[in-house]
Design goal:
228 residues, alpha/beta, Rossmann fold, EC 2.1.1.33
């Protein structure tokens, strides 16, 4: 039995999704260049990106629109992006090619295993978890990604001073995330409660529509503190 045969949290539930011809072509032709195969050993990030730079991990990038925009606007950073759904991976790869981006690499695998096995402690300057599945029904809360054990794992991979940024449009999940981050002794809130949306996180079309309808969006931004 492998050491990852049992784990309390998975970062996803695999769902079927339609993939366009363009996404399929991008996945087939560009994944060998911008993809990093899952491996059960530490990843050399300098080798993977071909340089040394601040490293931001994004977990669950959906169709990759925000990811591509952030990478375009912040060429000084490298973005290691994790997503399991092939249409989304193909979409981001297509945008990487169209924008000529060189600072994104993609791992198409479960984020929990990537964090445990591929990333060494103290290697990340930041983590983005934007609009994770809220699993709104109470009986499904145990499936939520952001739980104490997962936050502890993220803290181990963050450098001192590195940030952990989650955003959600479900108020109850926002309350849960804020409480979970606050309970981790290695994290310190950057705001009194919820943070203003940082400039680097673009508004999605879905989010803009929701805000016009009066729906809320909550950003939670903490930093990895040094313990005495």
């Amino acid at each position: 039995m492998s050491e990852t045969s049992h784990r309390p949290v998975r970062s996803f539930v695999l769902r079927q999704g339609r993939m366009s011809n363009a996404q399929g072509r991008a996945h087939e032709t560009l994944m060998p260049r911008f993809g990093i195969p899952f491996q059960m050993e530490r990843l050399d990030l300098d080798h993977a990106f071909g340089r040394s730079a601040p490293r931001i991990l994004e977990i669950g990038f959906g169709m990759g629109d925000s990811t591509a925009q952030i990478a375009r606007e912040h060429p000084e950073n490298d973005y290691l992006c994790i997503e399991v759904h092939t249409p989304g991976v193909g979409s981001l790869l297509k945008q990487i090619e169209e924008s000529g981006l060189s600072n994104i690499r993609i791992v198409q695998h479960d984020a929990v295993e990537v964090l445990k096995l591929m990333l060494a402690p103290g290697t990340l300057d930041g983590v983005h978890i934007f609009f994770p599945d809220p699993w709104p029904k109470k009986r499904h809360h145990k499936r939520r990604l952001i739980q104490a054990e997962f936050v502890a794992l993220l803290c181990e991979r963050l450098k001192t001073g590195g940030y952990l940024h989650a955003a959600t449009d479900w108020e109850e999940y926002a309350t849960h995330i804020l409480a979970t981050f606050s309970a981790e002794p290695r994290l310190a809130n950057t705001a009194a409660n919820y943070a203003p949306r940082p400039d680097y996180r673009p508004l999605t079309k879905f989010e803009q529509r929701g805000l016009r309808l009066g729906h809320g969006v909550w950003d939670i931004v903490f930093r990895r503190a040094a313990l005495d």
